[in-house]
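#lab-general

N.A. 3:47 PM
ok so I finally got the sequence cleaned up, no stray characters, all 139 residues accounted for. can someone with queue access submit it? mine expired

B.Y. 3:52 PM
send it over

N.A. 3:53 PM
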Amino acid sequence: MSKSATDLMQEIIFSAFLDGIAALKASSKGLPNTLLRDLNAIHQNTTFADLPKELQTAISASVSSSFTRLLKEGYAVAPRDAAPPRSAAPRGDGPPRGPRGDGPPRGARGDRPGGPRRDRPEGRGDRTGPRPPRKPPAR
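B.Y. 4:20 PM
back already:
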């Protein structure tokens, strides 16, 4: 049985995270102060170029191996431009499809669950003729 997409993505991200930590340790050459300095230099606005060279290499390798693993597990990986185009809107030259395409026509509300609404009066009530004009807004 193949793994679910969630399990697979968790494994890929966890593996990439561990590879990144190992790369940070390697870039500090075993010096704890250097490792702390490199960790503290990483923040929300850090760009890829700001990262240590070893970490850049580890991230690139993780991305490449992630796509390979997704393909091995049977998931489709393609650039956004290469995605199959969406089908055009259906035209009326074919047979009707969908839940309303077959069966007798439905009434206004009588065929719906609960039947017609009884909590509202039907029609315009006791009014006859057109509506009176609106009052101008107060100033």
